[in-house]
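User: Can you model how thymidine-5'-phosphate sits in this protein?
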Amino acid sequence: MLERPPTGFYLTLAGPEGVGKTTQLAQLVQFFESEVCSANIVITKEPGATAVGRELRAILLMTDRTDIDPETEVSLFAADRSAHLREVVVPALMQGKVVISDRSVFDSFAYQGFGSRLGIEAVKAANNLAVGNCWPDLAILFDLPVEIGLARKYRQQEVNRFELKDIAYHQRVQRGFLNLARIDRGRFIIVNADQPPAGVTSEMLAKLRDWRASHKKLFLEGVN
Ligand code: TMP
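Assistant: Here's the modeled complex, given as structure tokens:
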């Protein structure tokens, strides 16, 4: 089983489409550089952070690949995750680094578990071998009405296979994320993303500082 190294800090950004994760990532890096550690941050993403992952990402996101059933889809994301954790995340944690990942296993729970209705247990089973006990230490969940996020995505030139799914699917995904956050309170921070970017940043950082104060041991001891 994949073991979580005792060092480092594994943070993930979560949320439905178009919630502004990329914009907030830069602010988070600044926070970690100035308040926690400098030059010890690894920024990564799922799917597609490894050689095999990039090929899986192409299959998973291409819009003409409409014949992927949910069981196959969850398995492909787990395969990407297996390579990502072993090649990128765990080696960085072993060196005491802060890993910030755009998406993680929580997205499989929300998208495949709730969006595609596979359910939590099926997603867990599909991810057992890939994840072992190397779960993110903390997830920042950006919450935004799905219509607003999707409208932002549709304004872009290219949309992916998930962004083309109907609104009911995305509403299930959003409810799924909120459910996960409720079940696993200690591991989630929920940020209201329905406000200007500067407001999102200050809410995110205030909640992160509070979380750090109550999880000092995990946060400070592991990071070099
Ligand atoms: P993005 O990299 O542009 O966020 O696109 C990734 C897409 O893949 C996004 O629509 C969410 C979806 N996704 C899942 O459905 N399950 C997963 O486990 C992950 C990591 C992403």
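A couple of observations from the model: The longest strand covers residues 9-14. The two ends are 25 Å apart (CA to CA).
User: Helpful, thanks.
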